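User: For my dataset I need records formatted as: sequence, then structure tokens, nothing else. Please produce one.
Assistant:
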Amino acid sequence: MKLECAAKSYSIEIPLADFIRLEQYENPFKGFKEDALSTILDRIEGVDDTKYNGHFGPYIYLRIEIEHDTPRTHKAIIAAIQRRLNECAATASAC
């Protein structure tokens, strides 16, 4: 019997002000109808189980399958988060 790593779990700390804007921006009660950042991140090949809600601080948690745990995947994740944070900042007055 042998244990093998199939995936790694990561946490990504977001500046608190950006995290608050993200939660406000993605609020369905304020008319948000786009895909949530979690859905966008889960669409990246090898990424799943994306979660964030502020209960454990301003972090995004996700899992990457070991064969996709590469600098390319990390770069795609960071780019997707940054795009969403930029959208939030651009509409901060509407939040």
